């Protein structure tokens, strides 16, 4: 399974970003191999539709689960429609490495 995690930066020490569509980066974790890759969220500054564009990126990357702190209504509806599991976390003091450790 591949899991996308909203991130403030492009490395494992980066903080968890509570925002989905406006997150600066996405960490993609391949749970089978343990490999992580970071992808810049190019739509974070979009005037509208950042959440739906983030969902498109998630699908492009092959993720079936996403961890973030908040999903806008349009993004949530689209994720539901695509059967992508949403996991809500409210602790933005965690690093990406902390979150990955809790998954493993």
Keywords:
104 residues, alpha/beta, five-stranded mixed β-sheet, 3 helices, 28% helix, 24% strand, globular
Could you explain how this protein is built, in words?
The protein has 104 residues and is α/β, with parallel strands linked by helices. 28% of the residues lie in helices and 24% in strands. It has 3 helices and 5 strands; from the N terminus they run E-E-E-H-E-H-E-H. It has helices spanning 50-61, 73-81, 96-103; strands at 2-7, 25-30, 36-40, 65-68, 85-88. It has a 5-stranded mixed sheet, with helices on both faces. Helix 1 (50-61) packs parallel to helix 2 (73-81). The longest helix is centred in the middle third of the chain and has 12 residues, at 50-61. The chain is globular, with a radius of gyration of 12 Å. It starts with a strand and ends with a helix. The mean pLDDT is 95.
In brief:
This protein has 104 residues and is of the alpha/beta class. 28% of the residues lie in helices and 24% in strands. The mean pLDDT is 95.
């Amino acid at each position: 399974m591949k899991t996308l995690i909203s991130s403030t930066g492009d490395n494992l020490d980066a903080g968890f970003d509570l925002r989905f569509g406006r997150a600066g980066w996405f960490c993609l974790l391949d749970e089978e191999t343990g490999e992580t890759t970071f992808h810049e969220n190019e739509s974070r500054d979009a005037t509208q539709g950042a959440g739906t564009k983030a969902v498109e990126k998630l699908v492009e990357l092959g993720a079936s689960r996403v961890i973030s702190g908040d999903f806008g209504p349009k993004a949530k509806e689209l994720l539901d429609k695509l059967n992508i599991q949403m996991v809500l976390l409210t602790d933005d003091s965690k690093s990406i490495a902390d979150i990955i450790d809790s998954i493993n």
